[in-house]
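Might I ask for a little of your time on a matter of protein folding? Here, with my thanks, is the record as I have it:
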Amino acid sequence: MAAMACCRAPAWPCKAAGPHHDRTARHPAGRRAAFADAAGPLRRAEGVRRPEAARPRSRRGAAREDYRCGSLTTDAHGGTDFRVVDEAAFVTGVPVVAAAAGTVVRRRDGEPDVSVRTRAFAAGRDAGNGVVIDHGDGWVTQYSHLRAGSITVEPGERVAAGQAIGMVGLSGNTEYPHLHFDVRHADRPIDPFDARPLTAACARSRGQTGLWTRGLAAVLDRATTAIIGGGFATGFVDPAHPRAAEAATSLATTRPLLLWSEVSGGRRGDILRFAITGPQGAIFDAQRPLDGDHLLWMNFGGKKPPPRGWPPGLVRGEITLWRDGTLIGDRTVTARIDP
């Protein structure tokens, strides 16, 4: 896939949901719908990433666009993705909950939690493990890529808004742990960010909450840009596998010192800065301007070792993201150079 490395449209014709909040969702036409009290699909917990790159809409004949005419989407992506921070958060478990009350009409479990870069997914099982909920009045949600063995509901079971139904997983056609959340009304895909069909034209207005509750909409609105990964690397960082380097906390004195970072929702003109300091002070300080709007943007910088190698001790890496002179993201990491 492209930079986002997310799943294709789920194999099931249904959608997904999340935690309960205090505001009523409305039918796109304005009348109260059975799909009321809709919120986001994840219970608040440590390790939950804000949604990134998954606002669905790609207008035919145009560059990919999200509901606000931005670039936080991929071509033909028909849902909203919520990813977890890292492997530790995935192992701990991030609960997925029903966005609204309804009846479970379908579930699938037993698909392994393995990245498609390691193992191909079974034909017709793009969505991996998942749950489908019918909310009445034509509203349906689907929760895809759930963790194997985590689903706690059965077909025919009534669920309440905010009730846990499983955990974020890595099953199906996916490269990293995340929840793929879909909404349909009358069998038409609906964008929860503006409560309109995916075929509707995008709009630049920032005053709409869509199907999200007001509080959640405000959180999601602030989540458009973030540093979602970064750390020291022991060598060249493959853009296709940047997270393979995240655990590098022990570095060799004769190897280059490299910092890598992954940014979600970067815009043209944003400045990504890398700075490394060691036992004897500053080692490296450089900045990289983003050359365009990016769903995901991965970059790295660093310095070759001096002839006698790096002095042993603790090194500190600082990754900062700036927009129009304002700091909008930062991450600090440390590692130790071994003698």
The chain has two domains: 1-224, 226-338.
